């Protein structure tokens, strides 16, 4: 179960961060006052505390979501079983996969990657469908206004625009 494994991973991370933040706090308190060592220790401590708070919030969210899902499943599974409907509900599962994809998608903008993806989509859309390798005729390319013949060439000196 995805929610459960995520929740367990977050709990393990919380335990690690609790220990690390205690060590960082001790290092901060023992560092000489008005030194770069103390300032670095303070920054490390506060960063760990912030990460611990954020991770604890995520853990509470997933724990609450897991409890709600278990209640929902306990109620709906017997109904689906009795009516011999597919489990899990295909629409709910599709929605779950979409949510999962969006949550795990990169939030970084990579212009080079986007350009390559767009070029691949354009190339795929211009390629003839399987079984139509430039033959022309119905459904393929080459039919059009000119009956399969290439378009007329522009006269010399003309831009081809009217």
Radius of gyration: 30 Å
Major sheet details: none
Termini separation comes to 64 Å
- Supply the helix-strand structural class: mainly alpha
**What is the N-to-C succession of helices and strands?**
HHHH
Could you tell me the number of beta strands? 0
What is the overall number of helices?
Answer: 4
Percentage of helical residues?
55-70%
User: Which regions have little confidence, pLDDT < 50, spanning 5+ residues?
Assistant: 136-147
Mean pLDDT: 84
Strand content: under 5%
Given the C-alpha coordinates, what overall shape results?
Answer: flat
What would your notes on this structure say?
The chain is mostly helical and 162 residues long. It has a domain at 2-104. The protein is 66% helix and 0% strand. It has 4 helices and no strands. α1 runs antiparallel to α2. The relative contact order is 0.06. Residues 136-147 have low confidence and may be disordered.
Q: Key terms for this structure?
A:
about 160 residues; single chain; about 65% helix; mainly alpha
What's this, in brief?
The protein has helices spanning 2-30, 36-82, 90-104, 111-126. The protein has 162 residues and is an all-alpha fold. The chain has a domain at 2-104.
Strands, helices and their partners?
Blueprint: H1 2-30, H2 36-82, H3 90-104, H4 111-126
């Amino acid at each position: 179960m995805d929610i459960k494994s995520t929740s367990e991973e977050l709990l393990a991370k919380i335990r690690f961060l609790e220990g690390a933040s205690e060590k960082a706090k001790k290092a901060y308190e023992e560092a000489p006052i008005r030194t770069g060592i103390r300032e670095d220790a303070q920054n490390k401590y506060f960063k760990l505390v912030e990460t611990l708070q954020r991770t604890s919030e995520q853990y509470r969210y997933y724990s609450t979501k897991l409890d709600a899902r278990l209640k929902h499943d306990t109620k709906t599974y017997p109904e689906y079983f009795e009516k011999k409907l597919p489990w899990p509900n295909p629409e709910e599962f599709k929605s779950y996969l979409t949510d999962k994809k969006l949550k795990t998608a990169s939030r970084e903008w990579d212009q080079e990657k986007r350009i390559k993806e767009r070029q691949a989509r354009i190339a795929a859309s211009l390629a003839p469908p399987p079984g139509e390798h430039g033959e022309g005729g119905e459904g393929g390319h080459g039919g059009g206004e000119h009956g399969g013949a290439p378009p007329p060439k522009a006269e010399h000196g003309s831009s081809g625009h009217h």
